[in-house]
Amino acid sequence: MKVLDFPLARITIWFILGIVFFYYITIPLFVSEIALGLGPSILIVFYFLSKRNRRFISFFGASTYFISFFIGGITLIAHTNSLQKSNYIHYQKAFETPSEITFILREKLKSNSYSDRFTALIQTIDGKTHSGKIIVNIAKDSLKSPFVIGNIIKTKTTLQKNNSTKNPNQFDYDKYLEDRQIYAQVYLNKAEIKINTNIKKDIWYYADYLHRRIIHNLEKAHFNPAEMNVALALILGQQQEISSDIIQDYQYSGATHILSVSGLHVGFIMLLINFILKPIPNTRKGSFIKLISVLTALSFFAIISGLSPPVLRSVIMFSFLAIGNHLRRAGNIYHTLLVSMLLILLFEPYFLFDVGFQLSYIALFFILWLQPLLKKLWNPKNKIALYIWNALTVSFAAQIGAFPLCLYYFHQFPGLFFVTNIAIIPVLAFVMIAGILVTTYAVFDSPPLFLAQILEKSIYLLNQIIHAVASIKSFVILDISFNFYFLLTFYLLIIAAIVWFKKPDYPKLVLFLISIILVQLSFIYTKRENETQKEMIIYNAKKQTLITVRSGKNIKLFTSNKSMLANPKNNILNSYLVGNFSKIKSASEIKNVLFYNDKKIFIIDSSGVYTNKTQPDILLLTQSSKINLDRVLEEIHPKTVIADASNSNSIQKIWKKTCAKKNIPFHATAEKGYYKLK
Predict the structure, then answer these.
(1) Residue 560 pLDDT exceeds 50
(2) Per residue in 574-589, pLDDT tens?
């Protein structure tokens, strides 16, 4: 690929490798500082040597990549808030006892049934200056929320660390928050809060103010709430209030990407501004006016959409494209992509591990690389056929690029994505243009009723089209097992196939055949690895007991939930089955005694029945059984005691103290997560 001949491409790759390496492997900071300190000296030496002797050019290049690698690593370290001494994570007292905490609300998150949720920046704890980002959960009541971004809030509460994953193969929300430098949450009632009359009026405040003003003016125009929430998602990327049913429709139809503001939305804005400014001549002065207008419009859009990461990266990329056009440089679009990526990661290296960041860049890359090849396969003369073909090729290119990542992260695939994209593009184009006009008008005043109704009906039509496609459930493939080996080999296969298809020759054919063999090897290795696995899992499932015994890909399920005997699936089990390429072979009601790998597991349920002769290796307590645990331990002598999530929290605390007195290991799944027995 010619793009790799561009020096910045290789520098960016090494910079990214540095971020990835330092993310997974802890390297002492002083080692990085020494390497980075010596790097420029080595670079300068090889630069002058390469001027005299061309044999040193490769060493000069290697030293450049060496520096790029460590700059990437140090950039990651510099943006890891937990390494800062002022961060609240180092003030352990705040996690143990109620403390006076002052924080500033920064961003409104999607609310749940019980709480309004925000991110906030810590200012002080117990009168001392601290820093760091937390999630604030404020219990809902009948009154309208008085909180706005920029509120300075004081309260007395205890910081609570994020809950780690309690069951195998589930989404690691704790890690997700950690990558966003959020290490704790607080749960508050409005009565516990003192709001400072002063508001910190920074760019985040004004972004939220504009957003609230837009919503207020749209409500004045009697905009239907359901359509208005979709409009806010489509135009501004604000998905906080959109219903879960609508989100599911967009997922099943393969149209989720249009709810997340990306290059598609920013591209529409750029095209609209260029269309409005078309009468201005392309002189040096006219081009400069167009550039300033585009950059101002994109910046304004980023602010009113809340400065979210997807918007920022799209705005940055299109800003570079606009600057390139102004300078009359028909620069390689890949270089623009790389420059925007490098700039974003310099300021926010943790974006690299954001799923949205990965999907948007990989999809855009494949549109730029693969779509021109697909387009050449057919050149229809009819304009309507040409439009449909162009829409299809763009959709296929993006889906081919994103396909392995979607399977890896979401384990599902919408089979009718191409139908959705063909059907919605005309409506979406109209919605985007009308939406931009309406929301821009709503910044200043309530939009005209007829204009609001046109947008509302257009969004209603869009939702109906998407719902119709999503309703054909037989084309939505769910629960697809897909691991990291598949991810790597599938991308190698896709890239090798495109390279060979673009310009066939013998070496490229060999590379393509090797990639096919590697995909097959990944399947064989995964199958062999799974078939040799044997384990028993006691899950953390509220109000029920779930146990699985795995032998290869076959799972035996034991449960206290009788309804699961007929339909032995739920979210907890699905994650485990998909993650381990397994299936449920049998499901039976749980008994008092189980045997696994020469170990005896005895279960005491709500009946509290047991015999002195049991003598188990593991005692499993369920359903808050009314027993004297001290006496039970003396009579049956278990080696380990486990309490699952069917027990009340209060009784688990008593059991934990009892086991501590007897020096018997105690494992509460609600506290430590699932229990695995190999």
Answers:
(1) yes
(2) 999 999 999 999 999 8
**β-pair partners for 128:** 125
The residue to which tokens 């485990």 are assigned = 576
Q: From CA 301, how far away is CA 265, in angstroms rounded? A: 10
Report which of residues 391 and 541 the model is more confident about. Answer: 541
Q: What is the mean pLDDT of residues 530-559?
A: 92
Scanning 352-448, the segments in alpha helix (DSSP H) are: 355-375, 383-410, 417-444
- Kindly report each contact of residues 581-585 with a partner whose C-beta sits within 8 Å and lies 24 or more positions away, as own/partner: 581/481, 581/526, 581/527, 581/530, 581/553, 582/530, 582/550, 582/553, 582/554, 582/555, 583/553, 583/554, 583/555, 584/555, 584/556, 584/557, 585/554, 585/555, 585/556
Residue 356 makes CB contacts below 8 A (sequence gap 6+) with: 260, 309, 310
Find the DSSP H helices in 190-330: 203-220, 225-236, 244-253, 263-276, 284-304, 309-326
Spatial neighbors of 151 by CB under 8 A, at least 6 apart, are 104, 105, 195, 196, 199
pLDDT at position 354 is 86
Q: Which pair of structure tokens corresponds to residue 596?
A: 């696994």
Model confidence at 434: pLDDT above 90: no
- Partners of residue 602 on adjacent β-strands: 593, 619
Q: Which two tokens stand for residue 60?
A: 């000069």
What integer pLDDT is reported at residue 330 of this predicted model? Answer: 46
Task: Give the amino acid at 67.
Answer: I
CB 614 within 8 A of CB 515: no
Q: Which helix (H) or strand (E) holds 68?
A: helix 57-78
Q: Which of 294, 107, 309 is nearest to 208 (CA)?
A: 107
Q: Residue 540's pLDDT is what?
A: 93
Which DSSP helix (H) or strand (E) runs through 188?
Answer: strand 182-188
How far is the C-alpha of 24 from the C-alpha of 38, rounded, in Å?
24
Distance CA 634, CA 627 (A): 13
Which of 318-327, 550-559, 644-653 bottoms out in mean pLDDT, i.e. has the lowest? 318-327
